[in-house]
Amino acid sequence: MWGLILTLFFLLYGIICYYIGKRGWYLLGRPTPLKKVLYLLILSLFVLPFPVSEVFEDLLPASIAPWLTVWGGFSLVGLLYGFLLLLMIDLLRMIDQRLPFVPARIKEHQKTPLAIGIGLILIVMTAVGYGGWNARHPVVTPYQLSVEKDAASLEQLKIAMVSDIHYGPVIDVERVKRLAEMVNQLQADIVLLAGDITDGSLPPGEADRLAAGLERIQAPYGVYAVPGNHDRDLRDDESQLMTSLEDAGIQVLKDEATLIHDRFYLIGRDDPDRNRQPARAELKDLTSDLERSKPLILLDHQPIDLKQAQAQGVDLQLSGHTHRGQIFPANLITDSIYEEDWGLLQEGDYHLIVSSGYGTWGPPLRIGNHPEVVLATITFN
């Protein structure tokens, strides 16, 4: 199944690149042999990095792979936006042929194609440049909630939640240290890591570096985490990453519930994986022995099974995974897949907060959303 998806993706990628290449060739008019060579070379610098970095990731030298991955991500988004803009231009041209609205002096001007080409390139470069800058400047997104339950002497709880760090070739240990500083400035009572801490399996030694960065996070009630679909090293309870996180004081919850200072429950769900046996536990089994009079806080990487959470009396669910599409217009897809792909959803006593995440997956850009740390303040009544 995954092979079929990859095949279809690269087929679509090839169509996009061919379309852009052909339209650019048209702008050259009758190019000289030198212009032909230069054009093909420049086009290759934008077309090849992404597939090469994806297909030959494990074969590339460690000094080259991260840079090629970053450039491949930037060029991929640039090609996508260029393709969409060219489609829009061609659509307007087709409409103009039937219902003329473009002045003749513009259509017939010798430099109009060149001006359109330059304008298109500037728009794409601006969008991609902003996306790269935006991805490296996270914001704090605050929420104020009210829960009608007794948390003993606790009247208010401040939760800092971080999802989708994607530690790996792009999000390095320095970015994790900056994250820790950002979280500590919030002075939260508890810090929750909602999955996809890593971008995939880590090379030797990286688990300790990641844990050392996260160990800087301080909170009175501790730091807790759940696995995400990218956290392959957290599937094994004896993995180096599990050991390193535990040594750093970070407790990973996989289908577990824990009572925090006899005031509220934190329920951490394992990420769903159909190939794993046994499958993740049912939420009703995780909550069957809990005191429902106490607040129930659920940490689940993906914003799914919302009706189950409501039925089990969960007061607040914290999730990530969606990235809010990460790059416009992918947010239209996540919005159609999930009941809530970002922000706060409240239905009765149930609250759901979905974060757009801190890091990036694939292209190191964010367009149409911001990387964030969530700060949820709960008032108990």
Which descriptors would you attach to this protein?
single chain; 381 residues; Purple Acid Phosphatase, chain A, domain 2; 6-stranded mixed beta sheet; 12 helices; 12 strands; 17% strand
Task: Give the SSE layout.
Layout: H1 2-28, H2 33-47, H3 49-55, H4 65-98, H5 104-107, H6 112-135, E1 139-147, E2 156-162, H7 173-185, E3 190-194, H8 206-214, E4 223-226, H9 240-247, E5 250-252, E6 256-260, E7 264-268, H10 283-287, E8 296-299, H11 306-311, E9 316-319, H12 331-337, E10 343-347, E11 350-354, E12 372-380
Parallel strand pairs: 1-12, 2-3, 3-4, 4-5, 7-8, 8-9, 9-11
Antiparallel strand pairs: 2-12, 6-7, 10-11
Can you describe what's shown?
There is one protein chain. α1 crosses α4, α4 crosses α6 and α8 runs parallel beside α9. The model has no long low-confidence stretch (mean pLDDT 93). 42% of the residues lie in helices and 17% in strands. It has a 6-stranded mixed sheet with strand order 1-12-2-3-4-5. The protein has a 6-stranded mixed sheet with strand order 6-7-8-9-11-10. The chain folds into 2 domains: 133 residues, no CATH class; 241 residues, Purple Acid Phosphatase, chain A, domain 2. With 381 residues, the chain is α/β, with parallel strands linked by helices. It is built from 12 helices and 12 strands.
- Helices and strands, in order, run as HHHHHHEEHEHEHEEEHEHEHEEE
Ends: how far apart?
50 Å
Global morphology: elongated
Structural class, from helix and strand content?
alpha/beta
Main sheet: which strands, in order across? 1-12-2-3-4-5
Which fold name fills CATH's third level, the topology of the largest domain? Answer: Purple Acid Phosphatase, chain A, domain 2
- Low-pLDDT stretches are none
Name of the CATH architecture of the largest domain = 4-Layer Sandwich
Secondary structure tally: strands: 12
Oligomeric state? single chain
Any idea what the CATH superfamily of the largest domain is called?
Metallo-dependent phosphatases
Computed Rg: 24 Å
Q: Helical region count?
A: 12
Q: Total domains, how many?
A: 2
